[in-house]
Here is the input.
Amino acid sequence: MVNPFREKLVEALKESKLITEEQLKQVLAIHKKEGGNLANIIVKEGLVKEQDLIVLLSSSLNLPVLSLSRFKIDPELIKLIPEKLAKQYRLIPVSAMGNNLTVCMADPLNIFAIDDIKALTSYNIEPVISTEKEIAEAIHNYYGTEATQLANILKEVKETDENEPLEVATIEEEVVDIEQAQKQSKVTPIVKVVNLMLTEALENRASDIHVEPEEANLRVRYRIDGALREAFTLPKKDQNAVLTRLKIMSGLDITEWRIPQDGRFRIRMRDKEVDFRVSVLPTNHGGKVVMRALDKSSLSIGLDKLGYLPEPLEGFKKAVAKPYGMILVTGPTGSGKSTTLYSIINQLNTPEKNIVTIEDPVEYQMEGITQIQANPEIKLTFASGLRSILRQTPDIVLIGEIRDFETADIAIKASLTGQLLLSTLHTNDACGAITRLVDMGVEPFLVASSLIVAAAQRLCRKVCPNCKEPHEVTDSVIKRLGIEVKKNTVFYRGKGCNKCNGSGYFGRMGTLEILLIDEEIREMIIKKKSSDEIKEYAISKGMKTLRDNAFQKTVMGLTTIEEVLRITTEE
Here is the structure.
């Protein structure tokens, strides 16, 4: 049977010349072999950007494009179409006017879907177009148990007078009625909204919750597998009550809205305790709150369960077994450095060892370990704190980050006098850690003597096991990868399903590049050889780079080529 949507898309692509005839033949061949949505295949192959494709379809079909992530849907409308039908036809109702129902569809030419919805709702159906991914996220956000609870709670806190215009001014010096905000923050619907926000975030495996005041509302987003996703919005009138509630829970000053504040709180959910680290930042429209979920249970799983390949993991374990010296883990913010270091000290945490940490801030609170919160306001910096720690005869010391010469100098000297010292640096690769320390002013011979191992780490998303499928990768993508690929190699991707919210990914794992410091590398450091020369030597001795390790995970079917290109730089 002819697919009108596919035929229209092919026709539009030919006319627009966004892709060549040869590329079109390739994607049609993939579509014939694998099935699925032709538009999705074109986007995943990297031939056309998703937004460009939607604009093209909109022009060709003469239908408006709707960005669902910026659109708030009335929960009452959701009740018109059952969740099963919405998922089946990849659509969601967005507005109703008179006898007309506007429905956002991934395939607006699906006559069967339009007829079924028309018969079910008794409305005339007016289709608009959006991406399949946005529709899947909207279905997840508006349907289901948590979404239904949220809809009912939001109904409770809805503005009483619908006809009253919303007056919003640019907030320069907002006058907050503290007593009123505190009273409102204890009102049952507000408490329910905040509780549901936290539980829904944890149910969806969110690492962060962003509560963001905007000009006309309060937006809530969750960071899941490293990407922010829209959760819901609240009326502007409830902003102060919600933010005050979060401040009270975090033990912060509810009378102060002009300066940044940091706090934390703990919740128990299904016999599991989760800490939340809270940051409040004053913005143009009020205080933005970001809460990071810190699940202590993830630290007890050990290095073996963090997703590393056996070869780099073996090198890491050898370094950790050393009685003294320095171990550095490098990578950008959010690459899992702290979790790796905490997992190490959790394994080394025995009654015979004195383990002390100095952090800014203390992320995970752990029993049996002395943890110090750095506070520059009272001159408790990493450097001054480390000096005091060394008088406490520690066996293992963890420094949150080496930021300056003074901290680096004391840390290196400590590692040379009998302590195992662990810390982090912000560099692109493992060899860059050596250059960074020397650039800070540390003598090369001290770096050579103290450093046991430098590791570079990234987090890559795992292919969703529920919708995993073989996937052909074009020659142009393989060329960009810069790695020799065997002819029979099978690559995988996630098609997108309910479990992964249409993203094709579920969960993340660590990817590690390990530079073990041998005698030759020590000589190279003393002679001030460049990081490129050290890297070249290490690779000749068998070191696998971040890209090599990430690609190996692709060959094993654990992640995708797109993720390899995203998390690693050109070698």
Notes: The chain has a mean pLDDT of 81.
